[in-house]
Write a structure and sequence with these properties.
Pfam families: PadR (PF03551), Vir_act_alpha_C (PF10400). With 183 residues, the protein is mostly helical. Helices cover 61% and strands 10% of the residues. Helix 6 packs antiparallel against helix 7.
Amino acid sequence: MRILKYAILGLLRKGELSGYDISSYFKEELGQFWSAKHSQIYPELKKLTAEGFITFRTAIQGTKLEKKMYTLTDNGERELCAWLTKKDPIPETVKDEFMLKAYFISALTNEEADELFTDQLVKRKEKLSDLENSYHELMTSSEEADSFSSPDFGHYLVLTKALERERNYISWLEHILALIKKA
Ligand code: FER
């Protein structure tokens, strides 16, 4: 499944974008939870153009630098909508190497286990703090991000889910650390 295809179609709903603009989105907000390499984006744009889901015009930047400005075609819009409304089965659990280590915890001493879990707790708290900053930024820059009709509602959704996930991870780590310290 070419998921990148849909990420690009989704981004183009914002209006005309260059390959560079699309790349930038993957470095910003979207890239926080859906990464794509620069090298994957250009071939995908070419493919989507050949399939008729997007189209481009050539714009001149400065005196002679040409750049392609892409837009969504009606077919592209329909393709995106078909994907968005398709109901998928839940995916396999995302692999988390730390969980594999946790599974083999009995190979560690109590001190080693304490250190491993403490390290993870510190890093998860840092991640939570980044997310809280983004959330604060979103809520102060956007009027009603938590309203379905807001263009920021999607950002609100992924951020609140990520916050929930990290808070849950932290509370689990704290619970396990308490058990380790009790041993
Ligand atoms: C953001 C939007 C989404 C953001 C993070 C996320 C830090 C999601 C992250 C995740 O699922 O881990 O603006 O900023």
